Structures are given as structure tokens and as C-alpha cells.
Amino acid sequence: MAGYSDRDAVIVGAVRTPVGKGKPSGALHDVLPADLLAHSLREVVTRTGVDPTEVEDVIAGAVTQVGDQAVNIARNALLGAGFPESVPGTTVDRQCGSSQQAISFAAQGVLAGAYDVVIAAGVESMSRVPMGSSVLPGSNPFGTGMTQRYPEGLVAQGISAELIAARWNLSRTELDEFSAESHQKAARATKDGLFDAELAPIAGLATDEIVRPDTTVETLAGLRPAFYNEAIGARFPQIGWEITPGNSSPLSDGSAAVMITSGAAARRLGLTPLARIHTTVAVGSDPLYMLTGVIPATEKVLSRAGLDLSDIDLFEVNEAFAPVVLAWAKELGAPASADLLARTNINGGAIAIGHPLGASGARIMTTLVNALQQRDGRYALQTMCEGGGMANATIIERL
């Protein structure tokens, strides 16, 4: 394990709610998003023993900032959690990577000397605030410049996933095998108690609600393509219509919170850091193939860190869709992509656990920090594709 300096940005606590089904029938549907986030915020200060008066900011990710998730949910949640009125909060949107970006902003603030104690968090209640509901009828969030730049039009993420599957020659069987394994890994991790230390039960939900231990390739094979569109098929004849609900991440509800301090503050407060934030990057990528940003993001963060793929003990690549992870492994790990996948999402990923958009970056970091401790690894790398053609990547080092 590595040591740390007074000015290092270190993770001293990380907690998440179980992930619920993002439907009215889901276990967390009746929990308001601000209360869902407040639960994780309250838990992270309780478990670390840090007085909330020490917290200098709360930076929270949320994607669909409308309705129950409007009006700066970070501030509303921290007040609902009982934090002093003196603690500020801000809400950020980098699409699916929103709370991973919140972690980067928090770490950057510590490294710059602007913070000693800060919480990065995220929330999304997709059952209460449906994805896309912030785009009002008749509105044009893209503007004329972007529309003129891409005159043929961009596509939905599911179509991007189809394009990736076609470009990297990923068959339906490969996608379904990967997805079934995600459920099996998450089910084993749940049964073996590997998530216990990171979970903060709420509303009677103690474990992730979406994981299906009985998922098999055969059951997934019976699902129909989710995004079939005749006009899109004519535009992109290479598409094989391989993406189904079974090899995509499901609608989900959840929240997570990660406390980050300076090394000096950790010592002053008597905290034992779990890891330090080693390197963070964000990249842009082709907005048509918008989910491929994880490839250049991984390359960039490794280059900036002075590390190689072989140095990384564990990877987390968000399973927005199965082809995202498989294309990433093919592109970066060839010819040894199987070895790379063996170190990736070892306790299952978003296809099984769920993908509560604004919460996923912090949820994955919480899971990754714990997995790194459990595996006695040194380095771990997290990356997420994001709407519009972007990705974040973060390397942490166990302490």
C-alpha cells in the first residue's frame, strides 16, 4: 500500500443505497429524490464520525433536474440530512458521469487547497423523474449550431449501442453472455456479503433489487430488440438489432456519497483513508458513437498517471450497454481482452445492479473502493460513457 501526503485528496468514506427498480412498483419509488440523497449524505458523516460542520461543500450529480429533482437537489438534500445551514451544495450534470465528475471536482478542490473536507454524491429517481422529462415539447436543447454541424441528426443511446456492436463485430450471443455473467457476479457478491460494508438500507430495501440470480443466456435470448426502427435501419444498414432490455442497464433509483478530504484533514480528524484520488480526466468523443468515450478516457488517464493497463488491479466500466464494455476491452486489451475483462466489474455491473444515472459514478466508486480493499489491490480505474459523446476516467490508489 502507498502512503499519502497532507495535500493528497483521499477517500475516507463511501456509502450507497441499494439500487431499486426505476418503476412505480420499485421499492424506492415512494422516497423523494432529495430524501434519497439525504440518506446517503447522513450515512457518510455518521459512518466516518465527521461532524457535518467540517463539510465545506456538497457536490452532487443529477441528470434529470426537473420536478422532484429540480432546484439544486444537493442543497435541499444536505439540509434535509440535518447538515448546518452554513454548508453549501451544488448540482452538476455530465450526463451518466455526473457524480463521477462530482468526485473529480471535489478532488480538484482539495488538491487546489480550496477544500479540506468535501462530499461528492449523486442521485437519480428514474421512477419519479423519467429520463428525458426535462426536455419540454417543442424545445430544442441542441441549438442551431449543433443541428447544422450534424445535419443528418444524432441518435438515441440505444442506437449508438447498436452501432458499436456492429462496428466491433459483437454478436447477440456475446452480449447476452456478458450480461448473464454480470447478474451472476452481482448475485454472488450479494450472497457473499461483499456489498454489505457499502450499503445503507432504506425503505425496507437492504440489497440491490434488480439483480436476477437465475438469469441465463437462454432466458436473455428470448428478448426482442429494444430499439428497432425501420428508418434508422435504412440509414444504418450495418445494424444487426442486437440490443435488448437484457443486455442494457435498467431504469433505476438510488443515491451514493463519497467523502473526500485532504491528507492533513484526515490526520487531524483521526480518519483512515481508503484510497487517494490518483488521476482524473474527462474527454469528448464522437456524439454519434457517443458511448465509446471510455476508450480514449482510459488511454488518457493511464498516460497522465504514468501507468499501463497491466498496473491496474481492478477496472469498473459502466455497463450502460453490454457492447460498451466489450468494445472497450477489444480495443484496449487485444489480443488479451479476456484478461482485461477478468479484472473488470468483478462484482457485477450496471446491467445487473442498475444505473441510477446521476448516482452511478459515486455508486461505482463506492463499490470499487471496497472491492480494492477486499482484493488487496493497489490501483483501480473507473470510467463511464456519457450522453453527447463524453467520458470520465479516474484512477485511485489504495492506502
UniProtKB/TrEMBL annotation:
The record's InterPro entries line, in alphabetical order, gives: Thiolase (IPR002155), Thiolase-like (IPR016039), Thiolase_C (IPR020617), Thiolase_CS (IPR020613), Thiolase_N (IPR020616)
Keywords noted in UniProt? Acyltransferase, Transferase
One annotated GO molecular function is: acyltransferase activity, transferring groups other than amino-acyl groups
- Superkingdom of origin organism: Bacteria
Every Thiolase N-terminal domain range: 10-262
Thiolase C-terminal domain location = 271-398
Q: Where in the sequence is the active site?
A: 96, 355, 385
Transferase as UniProt keyword: yes
Q: Does the keyword Acyltransferase apply?
A: yes
Q: Which CDD domains match?
A: thiolase
Question: Which family, according to the similarity comment?
Answer: Belongs to the thiolase-like superfamily. Thiolase family.
Protein name (Swiss-Prot/TrEMBL): Acetyl-CoA acetyltransferase
Q: Which organism is it from?
A: Mycolicibacterium psychrotolerans
Organism lineage string: Bacteria, Bacillati, Actinomycetota, Actinomycetes, Mycobacteriales
